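thought: fold this chain, then report.
action: predict
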Amino acid sequence: MVQDLKCVVAALGNRRPVLVGASLGGGTSLVAIGEDHVDATALVLVDVAPHIEKEGVDNIVGFMRQKPEGFISLEEVADAIARYQPHRKRTRNLDGLSKNVRLGTDGRYRWHWDPFILADGVELEQRQMRLEAYSARLTLPTLLVRGALSDLLSESGAQAFLKLYPDSEYVNVADAAHMVAVDRNDIFGSAVIEFLSRVVPVGSKPVQKPHERRPHHVGPAGDISDIP
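observation:
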């Protein structure tokens, strides 16, 4: 996946990108920067950090491995998502779900992902050590966004990252679980835009490195308090 990211960045030419990665995408971005594969201007990690919770990983793996024989309808897909994300209101419009599944020749829907990534399981300890080393070497503006209801990235996991890279900033989004941008895109979008407008303003050089204050969203957009 790092090689894929390198190809995407190479297609940009001489422009240095901002990497915004959620979950596995965030881990891929951190590795790409840590191993000097990508020269980025800023990094946004969404509900991912070196230390993640085994229970959350098991829940994701269980969700992705269910129904290998395929779902018989998009309604059944929606039911599976509702069981996995009980905090989220079940969608009535099923059209969007078609982007996450593929329809096989047998008429059944299967998740649109490569099962090879789960073939050998997840070595959490090895993963954590690797990403901790990369986090401690970060020098670029970095924002960590966590879903307050997430079972993958705990508050302690987020704080551990902030200790590894004290210059990073932090936003904790209320009423959002692991899929932060899906659950509260209003807060997520506002937080990322505000961060990037300061550290990599369009059309000019960065005017301010990550400030010491770490914004912490605890409610609707605009409701911010400091973390000690």
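thought: worth noting. The two ends are 36 Å apart (CA to CA).
final: tokens above.
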